[in-house]
Design brief:
This is Phosphoenolpyruvate carboxylase. With 30 residues, this protein is mainly α. 90% of the residues lie in helices and 0% in strands. The protein has 2 helices and no strands.
């Protein structure tokens, strides 16, 4: 179960990176 949740979070994170590239670059600076 935990593994499946991690995969879901990873896919969501990838979608967010595609949708908000500016936010990701801000996070990378930190």
């Amino acid at each position: 179960m935990a593994n499946r949740n991690l995969e879901k979070l990873a896919s969501i994170d990838a979608h967010l990176r595609l949708l908000v590239p500016g936010k990701v670059s801000e996070d990378d600076k930190l």
